[in-house]
Each structure stands twice: as structure tokens, then as C-alpha cells.
Design brief:
mainly alpha, 0% strand
């Protein structure tokens, strides 16, 4: 699977994390980073999973689709 070197962190992600306990914040942030860079789905507790899939996943996935299209136009990964 292709992996990108960067991803966009949106203000809405920060808003989604407001009120999380420090341990939850760390898990959630790691989930965003791992999916943003490697497209690996996180294994999160139900409450965090709901927040991730409702508030972050759609944008991260849309960014992945755009990245893949750019890579295809370039003829593959660089």
C-alpha cells in the first residue's frame, strides 16, 4: 500500500478532541496520525471510535482519495 509523507490536520479535528482526558487525547491523536499517514484504521474504544468516524475519518479518507489520484496522474508514488 502506498504511504504519504504528510497529511492535513484540520481545525475540526482539534474541536472533536475537546474535553478528552489526556489518555483519550493521546489515543485519538495517534489514530489521526496513523490513518493520515498510513491509512491504517484505528482500534479505539467505542466512544472515541464514534468521534473518529463521525468527525475525522470522512475528511482523512477524502484526502487519501485525492492523494491517490495525484499519484496516479504522476505515474505512481515518488
Amino acid at each position: 500500500m502506498n504511504k504519504c509523507n504528510s497529511f492535513v490536520f484540520y481545525r475540526s479535528f482539534r474541536a472533536a478532541m475537546e474535553g478528552l482526558l489526556p489518555s483519550e487525547y493521546q489515543m485519538f491523536m495517534n489514530a489521526i496520525v496513523v490513518y493520515g499517514l498510513d491509512r491504517t484504521l484505528p482500534d479505539l474504544p467505542p466512544d472515541l471510535s464514534r468521534i473518529f468516524y463521525d468527525d475525522c475519518y470522512p475528511q482523512l479518507e477524502a484526502d487519501w482519495v485525492k492523494w491517490e489520484r495525484r499519484q496516479a496522474r504522476k505515474g505512481g508514488t515518488r
